[in-house]
Design a protein that fits this description.
The protein has 162 residues and is of the alpha+beta class. Helices cover 48% and strands 20% of the residues. The protein has a 4-stranded mixed β-sheet with strand order 1-2-3-4, sandwiched between helices. Strand 3 and strand 4 form a beta hairpin.
Length: 162
């Protein structure tokens, strides 16, 4: 978890992000309970090891999320086999869908925020993974078509999944 926070603090996107926005991302990450960080860190390492084992022509996703007791803040961690435009779009759809579902369930759209963190293995040996972030807040105004498409992608019915 410390390394992920360092990724956020020192990443190349820092030059494209205002200081208050960077602090907001770090604050969202810091909301993960201290007692759970070691468990989550080990889980993320296990998830990364798992997605590394997938053949190059296949994809695999692993997810874990935490919802604050207030129901207004959500932290989503994911691992995927590789990074690319399709993976980035799928990651965005997952985060937006889960954010939409949360504020639909709670009715607290204006107070809600979701931070998604995606880890993808690196193969160049310079670092173990890349970190991608997406944060959304309030009503992200997904169209009914987007909700349907994202739901079909991420919540397939048992017959569709097989």
């Amino acid at each position: 978890m410390r390394i992920i926070m360092e990724d956020v603090a020192t990443s190349a996107i820092r030059s494209q992000m205002s200081e208050p926005n960077q602090q907001l991302l770090l604050s969202d990450l810091d909301k993960l309970p201290v007692g759970a960080r070691a468990e989550w860190g080990q889980l993320l390492l296990d998830m990364l090891a798992d997605v590394r084992e997938v053949p190059a022509d296949e994809s695999k996703w692993r997810w874990r999320r935490s919802i604050a007791p207030s129901g207004t803040r959500q932290l989503i961690f994911g691992c995927a086999t590789r990074f690319g435009p399709e993976v980035e779009a799928a990651f965005q759809s997952y985060v937006l869908l889960r954010h939409h579902q949360l504020h639909q369930q709670t009715g607290l759209a204006e107070q809600s925020s979701t931070l998604g963190v995606l880890l993808t293995p690196r193969t160049d040996g310079s670092r173990p993974w890349d970190t991608t972030l997406l944060r959304t807040e309030g009503d992200n105004e997904l169209s009914s078509e987007e909700v349907e498409r994202y739901t079909e992608l991420w919540n397939p019915q048992p017959a569709e999944a097989s």
